[in-house]
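Q: Focus on the shape:
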Amino acid sequence: MKKVLFTFSLYFIIIGAFAQAENKTAKDTVELKSYATRYDPSKAALYAAILPGLGQIYNKKYWKLPLVYAGFIGFGHGISFYQKGYKKYKSELFDVLETGNDYSTSGYTEDQLRTIVDKYRRERDFMIILTAGMYLLQIVDAHVDAHLKEFDLNPNLHVRVEPIMETDVFTGRTAGFSLKFRF
């Protein structure tokens, strides 16, 4: 009895395998090509990581390029400004410590100079962190933008701002604007 069950189960497994192989070769499916197949999110993120703004160019979002570079230029200017102040006041602090004077050339005491040096160092480090955040943000933006290329927006979606006039027993006549959404 075990041999008969084994033979039948083997027979059905083999038949099932051939049946599935035949279905795989059937031409009853249609392959749809999307507009977004040429935008690879990982490629956009890689390009943005290699050169900031290149991911936005890959996604054909050229208007974001000035924003990316303006952010980097602004943060770079901030880093430069605070680094110069840090070096200036640090050298004045060392001069005060070496000479033993009560005041520096700019008129600050030792405690004031220590506070100023700490402030400039802290602000410079914060600008460096913001620059790193800007770098990561533009990578994430390129990646998400490439994903959203295949997002289909409903053409029937409408948002309108309309004037509205209402009459109420308690408040009387009121006028304003209303947002109307149509899905």
Observations:
- The chain has one domain: 2-182.
